[in-house]
Amino acid sequence: MTEPHTLGATRDAYDAIATVYAQTFQDSLRDRPLERALLGAFAELVRTNGDGPGEVADLGCGPGYVTAHLHGLGLKAFGVDASPVMVELAHASHPGLRFEVGSMAALDIEDGALGGVLSRWSVIHTPPQDVPAVVAEFARVLAPGGHLLIAFPATDGPHVETQSYDHAVVTAYRWHPDRLAALLRDHGLAEVGRTTIEPLPTDRRQFQEVQLLARKA
């Protein structure tokens, strides 16, 4: 499977700001109790699927703090990121965990090997026409009964399926949740539930944040 043509630019951009990014966001879950609760529910669903594999991939893991959080929730979590510098920082901060460089569109993971996949804002830099290939990889590596938790910014309304915006690092894309849920469904990932988190009045970008939870049939 070929990688999205924008991957190189995204990788280089995050390599350049990796240290600042890690310092800025290392404690970001501390002030996000709702997201912590969603991650806890995701972890519980993975753990209770006792017949399936227990490993979970944090795809687009960055400096690894969410991977470590999943590990603390009792999951056999490992991280994958396109940025070698991010992966180096993750290794340095969490030496007991596994991190590797890789592309979400061409994962070095066997079919059906995972009980869970976390994609926390990791598809936002993938152009919409390339996202189906990434979702296909999510579905391929998940075992039957495995769960995907995917987070992304929402579009301004149902009449807009996707739209780009000027992200601080590199161009990013928003999705209408119904459109992304349909794409997951097309690849055998049935929606279990979704949450919408409203932005704070002080947030620079007034985008809704969507978290979709899906299960592989």
In brief:
With 217 residues, the protein is of the alpha/beta class.
CATH 2nd-level architecture: 3-Layer(aba) Sandwich
Number of domains: 1
| Uncertain segments | none
Strand order of the largest sheet: 3-2-1-4-5-9-8
How many helical stretches? 6
Using only C-alpha atoms, the radius of gyration works out to 16 Å
Largest sheet: 7 strands, mixed
Strand content: 25-35%
Helix content: 25-40%
What would you call the shape? globular
Structural class by helix and strand composition: alpha/beta
Examine the coordinates and then state which fold CATH places here, giving the name of the CATH topology.
Rossmann fold
Task: State the main characteristics.
217 residues, alpha/beta, Rossmann fold, methyltransferase, transferase
Structure explained in plain terms:
This is Class I SAM-dependent DNA methyltransferase. Residues 56-146 form the Methyltransferase domain. It contains 6 helices and 9 strands, in the order H-H-E-H-E-H-E-E-H-E-E-E-H-E-E. With 217 residues, it is of the alpha/beta class. It has a single domain (7-216), classed as Vaccinia Virus protein VP39 (Rossmann fold, 3-Layer(aba) Sandwich), CATH 3.40.50.150.
Outline the secondary-structure elements.
Elements: H1 7-25, H2 33-48, E1 55-59, H3 65-72, E2 76-81, H4 84-93, E3 98-101, E4 114-120, H5 131-141, E5 142-153, E6 162-165, E7 172-175, H6 177-186, E8 189-197, E9 209-216
Parallel strand pairs: 1-2, 1-4, 2-3, 4-5
Antiparallel strand pairs: 5-9, 6-7, 8-9
